[in-house]
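Before the break, one more example. Copy the sequence into your notebook; we will annotate it together after we see the structure.
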Amino acid sequence: MQLGKTKPKYRNRKVEVKGIKFDSKLEGLVYLKILELAKEHYFNFKLQPSYELVEKFKLNGKTVRAITYRADFELKINNKVFTIDTKGFETDVFKLKKKLFAYRYGREVICIKSVKQFDIWFREVIKQ
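Here is what the structure looks like once it is written out:
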């Protein structure tokens, strides 16, 4: 083991796809699938959109930072917005942020565990 290098906590590997860095191989593969599907279907997407879950506030004269959540993708399909997160494992922090997101934005985060699952989900949504 080399000093200064640590193993990823959840076995994810950072990858670069078409010049864009992703936090995991799955995220990069889903991005490629999105690009492939964009050739067949019309929809808009954003990479790594950020959402404010709790606004910053003052407490005892000190500012407490806002709580934010950065998803992997946001897709707009048939005028509906979908927030996508690729996850091999859902941490407790993610589960909490997912609930805060649903409360604040009135929609759920779609958790994707494989490219196949994403493809099936997408093809169902695009039909609607």
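The domain at 18-127 is CATH 3.40.1350 (Trna Endonuclease; Chain: A, domain 1). The chain has a mean pLDDT of 91. Try to locate both features in your own notes.
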